[in-house]
Write a structure and sequence with these properties.
The structure holds two protein chains of two kinds. Helices cover about 0% and strands about 55% of the residues of chain A. Chain A is built from no helices and eleven strands. The radius of gyration of chain A is 14 Å and the shape is globular. Chain B has no helices and eleven strands. In chain B, strands 2, 4, 5, 9, 10 and 11 form a six-stranded mixed beta sheet that branches. The chains are: A mainly beta, B mainly beta. Chains A and B meet through β5 and β10 of A and β4 and β5 of B.
Chain lengths: ~120, ~110
């Protein structure tokens, strides 16, 4: 199993630019999550999808952030325009549904380290 | 929403000793409690999880205990080794609610 795949691993860009982060979940997983990790705020859930449909986006910090999941094997998180305070590590995770019997473990990708100058 | 508190924030132990990390949660409806280990610069990796229908679960040197009445759960690492050095996160969620609420993390350092 290839695990959750994220790209790019590192992104450095200037303030005001558009940033697009990409994620491929584990095949067969029907839940996909986007998290942000910073020293100050720890691990924060931004948004999650079930069967490609956004279920809860209450963690998305501002309208500058948007996420899509056009199919079961691909999701994007966009920031436009980017700001220095968006600098963080962004993780994507996926899991099976609870139809397997209770909540299932979330498996994380390697993350994208984003630096906005 | 759910609030998960984790203690201590840092923990230094001698190799071979035990390490214990404690978490409390606020929502009595929470029933799924995973623990993640994150090495420096790496992704969080699930090391063990427990559901509310059991009080304890073990996997080799790692064990987790759950006290639903008191709303707290703990991670126990026995016979610690240098490779156990990492940040450990506890988390909680409710049945069919996939939002994991994470604790702030515990940095564990195992001294050789």
């Amino acid at each position: 199993d290839a695990g959750v795949i994220q790209s790019p691993r590192h992104e450095v860009t200037e303030m005001g630019q558009e940033v697009t982060l990409r994620c491929k979940p584990i095949s067969g997983h029907d839940y996909l999550f986007w998290y942000r990790q910073t020293m100050m705020r720890g691990l924060e859930l931004l948004i999650y999808f079930n069967n490609n449909v956004p279920i809860d986006d209450s963690g998305m910090p501002e309208d500058r952030f948007s996420a899509k999941m056009p199919n079961a094997s691909f999701s994007t998180l966009k920031i436009q325009p980017s700001e220095p305070r968006d600098s963080a590590v962004y993780f994507c995770a996926s899991s099976l549904g609870s139809w397997r019997g209770g909540n299932q473990p979330q498996h994380f990708g390697d993350g994208t380290r984003l630096s906005i100058l | 929403g759910e609030n998960v508190e984790q203690h201590p924030s840092t923990l230094s132990v001698q190799e071979g000793d035990s390490a214990v990390i404690k978490c409390t949660y606020s929502d009595s409806a929470s029933n799924y409690f995973p623990w993640y280990k994150q090495e420096l610069g790496k992704r969080p990796q699930l090391i063990i999880d427990i559901r509310s229908n059991v009080g304890e679960k073990k996997d080799q040197r790692i064990a987790v205990t759950l006290n639903k009445t008191a709303k707290h759960f703990s991670l126990h690492i026995t016979e610690t080794q240098p490779e156990d050095s990492a940040v450990y996160f506890c988390a909680a969620s409710k049945e069919n609610d996939y939002k994991l609420s994470f604790g702030a993390g515990t940095t564990v350092t195992v001294r050789a």
